Amino acid sequence: MRYAVYRILYGEDFIAESIKSVLPHVDKVFVFWTDQALGGATSAVYRGEQVAFGLHPGEPFDDWRDRVEEIDTDKIVIEKHHHPNFTGQFTIHVNDLILPRFPRPDTILSLEPDHVFRADQIEAALTEFEGGNHAAAKTRQVELWRTPSYRCDPERPWRTGTVLWNLSRVKRVPPTHRQAQPIGGGPAFGTLDAYVHNFGFCVSEKSMYWKHVLALGFSPLIGDSIPNEDWYESIWLKWHPDRNNANLEISRGAEHHIQRAVPYPEQELPELIREKGWTTYPTQ
Measuring CA to CA, which residue among 113, 108, 111 is closest to residue 164? Predict the structure, then answer.
């Protein structure tokens, strides 16, 4: 038995494709959502102005829930749960909210709403993980940039993709970091050859604006990397494959961690993304 687990505040752009990409391979999909930003943040200073997040109790931040409820399946469980900091959240989801109420699975996947698998890669990830000796492991990532026609180059192997846990090797999930990886002193954390496509940099302009402003507000409160305030306006919006294509990372002082974006073949994209009919980024 396998479960997939999401945590979400925003994510309307790719959540449906993400869930559909793993749905044939899991028995349940748990979507834990919140109506509050991390760290209790309610606003951020952006370009000299105080911007309120506009969060409303009991209401999703964007249209992610509509996209999820349109999926024709009885496998999805949607439940509200807020955690002030991503650290340890996956541990709570599994140990406190899933295992006491649902049959114990053999494998649990922790995904972000912008993780989309190609069919052969979700199969490869599960085969490799379940045939190996890891209690926990992460996939590699192909990080797409601005549109699915470009990817970040080179690959960033230190980044965490989808995380898989083998519950036959742990009685309970131990303390975990922000992306469900074990905290030091826990089980060894492996890296699979299989990869997931990460579309976090490919969302709409509206979604990216709020993603950026929210991060400006909560990052100092939870000890996360501080975004470069000018990134959305100067880098992401004005990106051009020839004229503005260097030092693309969002974190202040780490811009060089994404050196450039390079073309990505359409045939390598997940099937569900190709079906959307994406076009290349306009270069004129």
Answer: 108
- Band (pLDDT 50/70/90 cuts) for residue 154 is very high
Residue 240 has pLDDT above 50, yes or no: yes
Q: 34: which residues sit within 8 A by CB, 6+ positions away?
A: 7, 8, 9, 80, 81, 82, 83
- Model-wide pTM > 0.90: yes
Examine the pLDDT at 282 and tell me if it is beyond 60: no
Q: Inform me whether the pLDDT recorded for 171 exceeds 60.
A: yes
Alpha-carbon gap, residue 94 to 173, rounded angstroms: 7
The model's pLDDT over 198-220, given as tens digits with 9 standing for 90+, comes to 999 999 999 999 999 999 999 99
